[in-house]
Amino acid sequence: MIGVYNAITNGNRIGCNALALFVKQQRRWTSPPIKPEEKDQFGELLKEYKYDASKHILPHGSYLINLANIDGEKNEQAYSAFLDELQRCESLGIGRYNFHPGSTLGLSKPDAIKRVAANINAAIKATKFVKIVLENMAGHGNLIGSTFEDLADVIALVDDKSRVGVCIDTCHTFAAGYDIRTQESYDKMWSEFDKIIGLKYLSGIHLNDSKAPFGSNRDLHQNIGLGFLGLESFRILMNTKHVEGLPMVLETPNHKDDAVWGREIKLLEWLIGKSADNPDFVAKRDELWRKGAQERSAMEQKTKGKDGKKQSKLKVGKKRKVETDDEEEYEGE
After folding, report:
1. Which domain of life is it from (predicted)?
2. Is 206 a catalytic residue?
3. Is 221 a catalytic residue?
4. Is 56 marked active-site?
5. What are the distances in angstroms from CA 243 to CA 42, 98, 190, 330?
6. Which of 20, 42, 163, 293 could form a disulfide with 249 if both were Cys (CB 3.0 to 4.6 A apart)?
7. pLDDT by residue (tens digit) across 151-181?
8. C-alpha 76: how far from its chain's center?
9. What integer best gives the mean pLDDT of the chain?
């Protein structure tokens, strides 16, 4: 369905109380402006379904945007698209905007980070209120943001720190080498995040299991409980005090059936208040683990070389709106 307002009706239909959307066509540099009647309908639906656009909506930036591009013309093109999306957010009253930090494309990491921060600073000056949210990455190729240090380095160079935040993607976190499968390792991850970045910058969560094993640097999203993270990771997260009130967005495979997301939303809500030894939880955890066993086993074989070690060369592909289906992180242009 065409029109930004449809994100609200679609989300409400499957039981969302927070949602993501693209504010323009994500695979094109330019799109027609949002029509006044679309803005009006968006606002009316926000009221009808009781969404707070400043808190409950976390749009995803175009996958084409790379604010670190060293090519002057391409960098200007990326910045223009970035600014356009921020302005679209503000025209709709949306308070947060999530995007991928970019790719070095041959630059040194510090120089690439400086370019990203310079573009963020310019965009903040050109807009009024939308918070720019950096998403952590899985660590593939030349992408910026697979370590907390990368994200902290960008934030350190942003002049108005009230206008910048971080979104943690569970699959990316796991793939990048931050283990969140046990309470101990999960708490350690957040301790590192707080020490290096600061919990005050946490502005959103992307909820995804992982098709690839721990530390694989592969951005392969899986349905909740079927992947290498398992349901326990999400039970722990759903009972974490400091994530309460944040927009949480599913980017799991929906197999062309949005009802999958509806069932996962109910599953995640069901986890609230459950202990690790709750019999119903244990049964559901084990059921989902068995269901995903064949695919996990196939992936383990796929990611091992002849000598039994993990292969280092990974195929690069483009992401779709739902960042799954055996595709790698897209590095932008």
Report:
1. Eukaryota
2. yes
3. yes
4. no
5. 27, 17, 11, 27
6. 20
7. 999 999 999 999 999 999 999 999 999 999 9
8. 24
9. 91
